[in-house]
Amino acid sequence: MDNLKEHLNTIAGQLTPDSTLEDVYEQLALLADIEKSEQDEQANRVFTTSEVKERLNQWVK
Question: Do residues 52 and 61 touch, judged by C-beta distance below 8 A?
Fold first, then answer.
């Protein structure tokens, strides 16, 4: 919940008079994706480029 508040505060600071609710949703989704990626990296749930290429070659056979 704290991260949600932080994300909303960050977004609120970037709003302009032309900002729409859709803009807020897009920014919130982006920040959530970044946070998830950082958690995956910390938990070592990531692949190197070479690992991805190797797996891709196995799938494409």
Answer: no
Whether 10 and 31 have beta carbons less than 8 Å apart is answered as: yes
Q: How far is it, in rounded angstroms, from Cα 56 to Cα 53?
A: 5
Q: Which residues of 8-26 are buried (b: 16+ CB within 10 A; e: fewer)?
A: eeebeeeeeeeeeeeeeee
Is the C-alpha dihedral spanning 2, 4, 5, 10 positive or negative?
A: positive
pTM of the model: 0.69
- 8-51 pLDDT per residue, tens: 898 999 999 999 999 999 999 999 899 999 999 999 999 999 99
Amino acid type, 13: G
